[in-house]
Amino acid sequence: MSVTKPSQEKPGCGDLSKELGAFRTYLKSNGYRVTREREAIAEAILRNHEHFDVDELFMELRSRKPISKASIYRAIPLMIKSGVLTEVYMEDGHMHYEKAYGREHHSHLRCLNCRRIFEFSAPELAQVEKRIARQEGFKSLGHKFEIWGLCSNCQGQIAPAKGGGS
Amino acid sequence: MSVTKPSQEKPGCGDLSKELGAFRTYLKSNGYRVTREREAIAEAILRNHEHFDVDELFMELRSRKPISKASIYRAIPLMIKSGVLTEVYMEDGHMHYEKAYGREHHSHLRCLNCRRIFEFSAPELAQVEKRIARQEGFKSLGHKFEIWGLCSNCQGQIAPAKGGGS
DNA sequence: GTAATTGCAAACCGTTTGCAAACCG
DNA sequence: CGGTTTGCAAACGGTTTGCAATTAC
Prior knowledge:
Oligomer: homodimer
Strand order of the largest sheet of chain A: 1-3-2
CATH topology of the largest domain in chain A: Arc Repressor Mutant, subunit A
Helix content of chain A: 40-55%
Number of strands of chain A: 6
Order of helices and strands of chain A: HHEHHEEEEHEH
């Protein structure tokens, strides 16, 4: 379940105006300006994307309101600080992000074949985080858990590859 | 406990010649050549490094046997395939590795202040991996768990920073 | 009006690659 | 010897940055 697409339907997860509002509020209350570029970027992200990278975003914006990559790269850290966006993982040398506002913490399954990302949540991870932190005298501030393998679709196609292969 | 240093003492974890042997064997049985450069790289890694990046390694090799970064970059994938090395994480735009031969699976605690990496193992993570994989119809092939926060040393120094501060 | 922001193009920087010389087997 | 591997320097590709023109407030 839960590929990179659905989510607008989920209650409390798709309130675009609320998410945009949170970002605007962050900007204003930190002395940044609310520009049309920042709004366009934020809207494009918050409207459609669960996971994305800068290039996809750039392409998508190109059709409605072209915005330079520089501005996208400059907007992203602001969105992250405002809490509506998170870095998720680095792949093929570039970062992937996902929207964060109002979403519950979750982890990712990565299919090594089709490269799709699936989500799941496992509440006990928070407990592991706490326990280990206590054990090690750490003050924990977050964690990341990722599983990689083959999704149900790809298991059949790619086939066994039993030996040591590679 | 368990910063990035100790390990030679642990039984079964520091057998340099055995690790080097594993790498040589991999090379030979795959038609690659055992060159002095590859040996120097492998030895430097296997002798001293729990965690490292290419630049550190390059610097260290410079004193005994200068080797071009290109060769280091070309040797690393071989070492990974041979099983003596693993990619661990990307930080500040470059990859960090750790030696893998004979080491048990473990996860990392990352101090956001001093940037040191601590290790721990939490066996239940393997169970979470299996359970989620079963749930989602995945064939899992591995997982990664990371906790970030402040290590015991840095908690006092950096101080609370209670509010929302970035 | 004035400081912040944008777009452009150049700079960065870790990593990869083409090629001639050096080397393993 | 013959095919690999090395070192060098140039190429790559994602991200950052300097700067003049534009824009938010």
